[in-house]
Fold this protein.
Amino acid sequence: MQWAGKVAIVTGGASGIGEATAREFAAAGSTAVIVDLNEERGRQVAADLRSHGQSAHFSRLDVSDAEACRVVLKEIIAEVGRVDFLVNDAASFVSKGLDVTTTDWERSLGVNVRGYANMVQACLEPMRAAGGGAVVNVASISGHIAQPNRWTYNATKGAILSLTRCQAMDLAPFHIRVNAVSPGWIWTPEVAKAAGGDRAKWEPVWGRYHLLRRLGEPREVARAILFLCSQDASFITGAELPVDGGYLAMGSEGLGDTSSFAGTA
Ligand SMILES: NC(=O)c1ccc[n+]([C@@H]2O[C@H](COP(=O)([O-])OP(=O)(O)OC[C@H]3O[C@@H](n4cnc5c(N)ncnc54)[C@H](O)[C@@H]3O)[C@@H](O)[C@H]2O)c1
């Protein structure tokens, strides 16, 4: 009942965690609005959902462009009538350290921080008109830790956690809850690219960064995002939910001797 007739906007919905989230909303009975730079893939996902009798829409948008966010939101409202949920997932993966340039900073901050703010600003009036709703910002374990040559990406993910708390404060009077999820390593096209497509080779290596000794699936993050949008999370706002297989719980000793470990949970 809680999902039928509702509209969820998912930025980055053409791929990976965003795609899985759009699919979960549509399967639950909401209209999934996929917003992405990748027009070909975004249209494919929306068409696939519609071919299964579900409700889906695609809009091409670069979330770093505030004016474009406002214009596209108006078009979306004209098409689907309302907005109840917003998932800010689209990301720039520019990873630079000592060699970072002004252009790198502008892209990273523009998509990962300003983009998340642009979409909340563009969605505020329609969400108020709908009587309230929920926003989920996709952050990362990288917002908490140091990783080599990752000034840009990690700084923006830390900023998303701070932004989430500030947005939660300012949107609470409008009955809009704002939370973040922080995924660990999730097998998405971006991670598959880093693995050269070889999951069998890299999962045992990267899996050991997590207490559960494996990578996560996009759907496992999507399910947590739907939880935060659901009535079950009605008293949760300004919070971060790690969906990381225990990555952030691990100490410097790592997993220790794992020879007796029987399998994944
Ligand atoms: N995959 C992981 O292991 C992992 C871990 C932690 C956090 N995350 C976070 O999860 C989110 C999704 O990651 P993913 O691995 O599914 O990525 P992905 O590359 O599969 O999907 C990202 C999507 O965002 C779109 N996009 C990029 N820039 C955009 C822009 N300016 N405007 C609109 N769309 C844009 C891309 O076209 C793509 O479809 C990101 O915020 C990422 O930082 C991922």
Remarks:
- Strands lie at 7-11, 31-36, 56-60, 85-88, 133-138, 176-183, 240-243.
- The longest helix spans residues 102-129.
